[in-house]
Amino acid sequence: RAATSAPENPPATLAEIARHLAHCRRCPLAETATCAVAGEGPLSARIMIVGEQPGDREDLTGRPFIGPAGQLLDRALTTAGIPRSEIYLTHAVKHFKWTPRGKTRLHQTPNTAEIEACRPWLLAELSALTPQIVILLGATAAHSLIGPGVRVMRDRGLVSLPSLAPHVILTVHPASLLRQPSDRLSADAFNDFVADLRLALTS
Ligand code: URA
After folding, report:
1. In a domain, 52, yes or no
2. How many domains does the chain have?
3. How far apart are the CA of 93 and the centre of ligand 1, in A?
4. The Uracil-DNA glycosylase-like domain covers which part of the protein (predicted)?
5. How far is the centre of ligand 1, averaged over its atoms, from the C-alpha of 160 (Å)?
């Protein structure tokens, strides 16, 4: 049987997860998104990166982290010396949440109900992959896998969460770096982000 996959009976392989996810109606976001964006990366990945949700470009193409935030993540990974091809990239929420603003679609932060509705997919991915290191990008990923009380700027760095993975790193979301008030990426903020990613090399 298909589709909305009960949390107590999750699909077991990444391919099955992606197939079932395509039909997910666990929350209303599927109605306004183009598609569910499944995770991407090799089954052998030691590192799993969890973002917030697909953005406009990801929603249109079905691929994670290919828009502006994804390009900044690529640059940070390259600077840190971590090949993207060895990482499994996914999101806490699999459908793009947006509101119209003129001709563009403005990103909206997922709410608690949406994060919770999507969590079984993320947990299924974790079980299928059993990564050595999980990197949580931003508050939504942290909320999903650590809890609502986490504060990214206060708690960033290595966090102890052995039920999730041997090593868990919490850091900012690259989209937050793009939204810096100076309208240009602060070198300090970028370097701090890279330093957090580099924790994966020594973990
Ligand atoms: N934000 C994310 O978390 N992921 C993307 O792919 C794009 C924006």
Report:
1. yes
2. 1
3. 10
4. 38-194
5. 25
What is the ipTM, given to two decimal places? 0.93
At residue 203 the predicted structure's pLDDT band, cuts being 50, 70 and 90, is confident
Residue from 52, 84, 178 to probe ligand 1 pocket by mutation (most atoms less than 8 Å from CB): 52
Structural domain contains residue 1: no
Residue type at 193?
F
Domain around 163 = 14-202
User: Which residues contact residue 15 at a Cβ distance below 8 angstroms, ignoring those fewer than 6 apart?
Assistant: none
* pLDDT tens-digit series, residues 100-143: 999 999 999 999 999 999 999 999 999 999 999 999 999 999 99
Q: What CATH number is given to the structural domain containing 78?
A: 3.40.470.10
Residue 105 lies in a domain: yes
In a domain, 19, yes or no: yes
Integer angstrom CA distances of residue 45 from 75, 85, 129, 131, 132: 19, 9, 7, 7, 8
Residue 184: predicted pLDDT: 65
CA 201 to chain CA mean position, Å: 19
For ligand 1, which residues put their CB under 6 angstroms from it? 51-55, 58, 64-65, 67, 69-70, 91, 175
Please tell me the predicted confidence (pLDDT) of residue 182: 61
Q: Which residue has the tokens 């970028």?
A: 190
* Greater pLDDT, 17 or 4: 17
Per-residue model confidence as pLDDT tens digits over 47-63: 999 999 999 999 999 99
Residue 58 alpha carbon, nearest atom of ligand 1: 6
